[in-house]
Every structure is written in C-alpha cells, then in structure tokens.
Automatic annotation (TrEMBL):
Name of protein: ClC family H(+)/Cl(-) exchange transporter
An MF annotation (GO) of this entry: voltage-gated chloride channel activity
InterPro entries, per database record: Cl-channel_core (IPR014743), ClC (IPR001807)
A UniProt-annotated Pfam family: Voltage_CLC
Residue intervals passing through the bilayer: 20-49, 69-88, 171-192, 204-223, 243-269, 281-300, 320-350
Keyword Nuclease in record: no
Alphabetical list of Gene3D superfamilies matching this protein: Clc chloride channel
Length: 368
C-alpha cells in the first residue's frame, strides 16, 4: 500500500520527558537536609577528636617526664572503658566495630538497625575510643552516623515505601564519609562501589548532592583544605615507577595481614573469658599507653604522621576506585593519578593473590 513505505519521524516532544517530572527532584531537598545535619554533626565529631589528639601530644611527653602521673591516667582509662562498655552493651551488634558491615546487612534486608539509640551511642562511644588514642579512623563512625541520620529523617518525616526506605540511609552514608574527609567524590563513590553497587540516578544524584553539602559545611568550619591534606607539587620521575611496584607488593602483603588480623579479632577476643565481653576495650586502651609515651603523634587516625610520610596504604581496606579518588582529593591534583593507580592496582592484585578479599566488609558479613 501507499503508506507502507512512509517512515514516521518522532519529534523531540515524543522523546524528551515532560518538564519538571524528573523523579530525582523529589529527593534533592531531603538529601540537602541530610547533608546539612550530617555535616554539622561530623563537624563537632572531628573538632573534638582533633583537639583531644592535639592535647595527647602535650599530655604524653609530660607524663614521660613525670611517671607518677600515669597512675591517675590509667585510673581514668579504666573509667573510660567502663563507660564505653555500659554505652555499647544494649546495642553491641550495631555499635561495636566499624558499623559499615551492619549497614550492608541492613541494605541486604538481613538486619534492622535502631536508628536513634545507635546514633548517639556510636557518636559518644567512638569519641571515648578514639580520643584516648586508639588507632581508629573517624571515617567509619562518620559513615554509620550519617546513615543513622538519614534513617531518622525517613522515620520521623518521610515514611518512604519498602522499596525506597533505604535511600535516605544511603544518602547519609555518602554524606558521612564526605564530611569525615571533606571529600565529596570519595563519599559518593564509596556508596556506589562498596554499598549499593548501583548507579541508579535516584541514588547517585541525591547522594552526590548530600556529599557536596556535608563537605561544604565542613569547609565553613575547617577551611577548604581536606582534613588529610597531602600537597604534592612535583611529578614523580619515570625512573621511580619500578619502586612503586615494589611498594605495591609490600602494601598488598600488609593488606592481607590486616584482613587476616581483622577477621580473627572476634575469635581472639572470644578466648578472653576473665574479662566481661563489654569491657574488652580495656585491653587496647591500656596497650596504647606505651605507644603514646614513645610517639603520641601516631595515635588516633595518625593524620599528622601520614602527612609526614605521605602513606598511601588506603587500599588495605578500601576498594581500588575509592582509594584513588580519595587520595586524589587529598592531594589536590590529578597529576598523580597514574602512579596512584599503579600502586593501588599492584596492592590490590597482591592482596587477592594471597587470598585476601576485595571487600573486608563483605568478608565480615560472613563471620556470623
């Protein structure tokens, strides 16, 4: 027939969506609110940690010169350990350890988190643990704190459906890591690569928005430099690249050792029966004292120490892409991407070759 060979050409209005119907728009407002609240909370969290760790660099040398002061200090540590035990005991599963593993279990529908009790307990217990100098980073508590803030928003104000109820928690995850490091790209990539494995626009656009807002809040109080700023102004000569491979091998081996130790901690502590489980924290709190007397600058997250040695061992427990993005934001330059990619790839491969897992958090899910 005559009309059979006639082609129908669609117009733009047949292809493009209707204006102001982008489904992601409904989540942008709440993602901004989550970013603001998370940024403010993590700002206080970071400020207390920074001031306390700075104080330790004064206290420990003073105790080194006046050893008798160790007696009241150790008594104070016992009080701190008792407080931590009492705080975490009612919600031990959610408050003890990093919290990221528990969040992954929540997103998989295998666990339920009590938002507000876990939020304030994680905040206080993390401060009581990090401030005495334990070798713990602020990023993992920040991730769980941000997730709980997002979950509280859903519980109190939005009441999303079962299909969408985890979205606000995911925005909080990105905002929490972003505020911890003042690194919004790393916060978003951590969520996508480690937690959701999904680049759905309903996830990554509001998550990036929340990350940017929370990072901006920290910029207002701490300045625009990331909290772990490692300025590198010179390019690495090509002749040094073989040494990057050697360093990657060493870091990959250390990554495997780290995973081996981390996955055995629960089993090791289960053998300590003469101390109640909720007070096991007294062991590392006491063991860190000799380290502080030797060098207080390596206590806590060791940020000051890292600034001196420009350590790139992030790939021990972060996935490769997050490690590269995070260090890129810390360095403030893209010129180091090739050497960072090389050393991260080698470290990742060596860790996997030895039997390590690509995600420590996924491995921890299998412990129970």
């Amino acid at each position: 027939m005559k009309g059979e060979n006639t082609l129908y050409h669609k117009r733009a209005r047949d292809i493009l969506g209707k204006p102001f119907t982008f489904i992601v728009s409904r989540y942008l407002g709440v993602s901004i609110a989550i970013g603001i609240v998370t940024g403010l909370v993590i700002r206080v969290f970071r400020w207390i940690i920074d001031r306390t760790l700075t104080l330790l660099t004064i206290i420990y040398p003073f105790m080194g010169k006046h050893p008798w002061l160790l007696i009241p200090y150790i008594l104070g540590i016992f009080i701190v350990a008792w407080l931590i035990g009492k705080i975490v005991k009612p919600y031990e599963t959610d408050v003890v350890r990093s919290g990221v593993t528990q969040l992954k279990a929540v997103l998989l529908g295998k666990h339920r988190i009590h938002r507000w009790p876990v939020l304030w307990r994680k905040f206080v217990a993390s401060l009581l643990t990090i401030c005495p100098g334990l070798f713990l980073g602020r990023e993992r508590p920040s991730i769980q704190i941000g997730a709980c803030i997002g979950a509280c928003f859903n519980e109190k104000f939005f009441h999303l459906t079962d299909k969408d109820k985890y979205l606000l928690m995911e925005y909080g995850v990105a905002a929490g890591l972003s505020a911890a490091f003042s690194a919004p790209l790393a916060g978003t990539m951590f969520l996508l690569e480690e937690m959701t494995h999904n680049f759905n626009s309903r996830i990554w656009i509001p998550a990036l928005t929340s990350s940017i807002v929370s990072a901006f809040i920290t910029f207002l109080f701490f300045g625009t430099k990331p909290c772990l700023y490692i300025p590198i102004t010179t390019k690495l000569p090509v002749a040094s690249y073989p040494w990057l491979i050697v360093a990657g091998v060493v870091i990959g081996f250390l990554a495997y050792c780290f995973q081996f130790a981390a996955l055995n901690l629960t089993w090791w502590y289960s053998k300590i029966t003469f101390i109640p489980k909720e007070f096991h924290n007294i062991i590392p709190l006491l063991l860190v004292i000799p380290v502080g007397l030797w060098n207080p600058y390596i206590l806590g997250g060791s940020h000051d120490f890292i600034k001196y040695v420009t350590n790139m061992s992030l790939s021990t427990n972060w996935k490769a892409m997050v490690a590269i993005l995070l260090v890129t934001e810390m360095v403030g330059s893209v010129e180091q991407i090739l050497p960072m990619t090389l050393i991260t790839l080698v470290a990742y491969y060596v860790n996997r070759l030895l039997g390590g897992r690509p995600s420590l958090y996924d491995a921890m899910l299998e412990e129970n």
